[in-house]
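Service request form, structural biology core

Requester: graduate student, group of Dr. S.
Request type: structure prediction, single chain
Budget code: on file
Notes: please return the result as structure tokens.

Sequence provided:
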Amino acid sequence: MAGSTFQTNPYDLLKLLEDCHRGALQLPDFQRNWVWDEDRIKGLIASVSRAFPVGALMTLDTGGEVNFKPRSVEGAPVKDGLTSPQSLLLDGQQRMTSLYQVTLRGKVVETVTPKNKKVKRWFYIDIRKALDPLADREEAIIGVPEDRVQRTDFGREVVRDLSSSDREYAELMYPVASVFDWDRWQDGFDRHWRGDEHEDIRQAFRDFKRQVLENFKYYRVPVISLDRSTSKEAVCVVFEKVNTGGKPLDAFELVTAMYAADGHELRKDWYGDEAQKGRLGRFKETLRPADSEFGIIGGVSNTDFLQAISLFYTRELRRQAEQAGRTGKDLPAVIGNRQALLSLPLAAYKKYEKQVEQGFVQAAKFLHMLHIYRIFDLPYQSQIVPLAAILADIGDAGEHESNRLKLVRWYWNGVFGELYGSAVETRIARDFMEVPRWLDGGPEPSTVSETIFRSDRLKTMRMRLSAAYKGVNALLMGEGAQDFRSGQKFDHTVFFGENVDIHHIFPQDWCKKNGIKPAIYDSIINKTPLSFRTNRIIGGVAPSAYLSRLERGDKATPAIPEERLDSYLRSHLIDPLLLRMDDFDAFMADRQRQLLSLIERATGKLAYTGEVQEEGEDLEADEDVLESGLSPIDDRLIVAA
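Core staff response, request fulfilled:
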């Protein structure tokens, strides 16, 4: 059995801070800047002054597989270039930086108030309050401005002046910057309070030294030390578990730190700088409408991008293994999970980054072709990853009509099969391998062959966030639906210019007055894409009433002939006669039938007539996942495609 790759030992606080000062203990480059505010620093000082625990630290020994670019603890001096650290601080940056800044650094601390106002502070311990057993220790920790003078009345009245050592002695205010070296300060203090008449004050300082200062000197911190054999994935997982005080670490930050050790600025690639727009900026600008902040692929994350690259790299490794004669389970898996990202070499990233970026741009064009224009209307953000990877892989072949039709069919099967809601790493890798084979004459991908859409599912699709709900809306626009009022089809220009969204056909107010429950009238069957102005005209009246209003017209809207208006309705798969008769039940049954036919054409699959689960439940789980005994949402699954 393998032994543990970590050990826990107590270390003297002073030694840890000295290691920070000389560069033996540094931070990995992914660590964020020091951000603690003045009150949290005071609380930390108070805890150490009472020998209360402040939590364990976690370090990683350098020289192993995980090769992060190091950087010094904020404020530590840099001598003769960057010193190679013995270990990196994974957890405890804020605590160690705060203690280093207030004790050893010897300079004013730049921090913020609880309201995030930037300030500069020296910290002191009020000796009298610190010795008072009834006083709150945090009230004994004082922060003063850079000139060491506290003022009130907009700076006109001096409350406390600590601008010289003699004033510190007189006020019995001990500088936190001297907690590890009190002899010199005590010598001056004793001279200031010399004479028998001040013996009680000198005794108070001796008590303070014993009760407070020695707590700093002998304070020991538990440190969990990960040895150099710790894997990249373990570092990532462990960091996420222990880093509860801030934003969880993701794989992109770890990869950024590893690439930085080789001189590559991954963060600059993604975010850009003042001189050049990064990849994220380019994605946001891709097909961005004039009145929007970003386009359809503006929500692609940096880990999405790395995931797509890892698919190419792991497939390359698999092909090399095949050429070497390996078969079956001996072949490396094609994966896009976190482990794959952490194992992605810089050379592979550089090899595939441009190709994959172009794949995402092509994915944006593909989605626009399907009348999916906003991130809000995107059925599955996760499905963009395999879509972009596939398009990047097939290149110009994606422009051929037969391939395009297959890709459209694959996409809608993923949406209406609701297959991208869980176990997405497995699904992504599988589709990346199977779809290109299908385009090249191979068998149907499992996303197509496994899709089941139940006929009653339409009745339960009520939530705006449902992937299938959004899919029906896009299919209607793609089918040529025309706005009831203007008669315009919902292309890109009309969609944004007319503020198009999904609205009720039988209005909510009318449904409520007629005793129809929200679970029924809120179904996608009773909804369709319409412009904001058209929805205002519809209001809350019966369909027969608002159709008559549209036919009559008014000062703002010309009259619409009945036959033309009926053609608009039919473009939404609505039977005009049933709508004019205000026959809600017949309308729902007829439109359900027509929408099912629309979905069947899109997926190439007949709807299943069995029972449907309630919305929000997974309709299908991957067979591979179920057979493995693992949870379908385990993001560490891999697939050997």
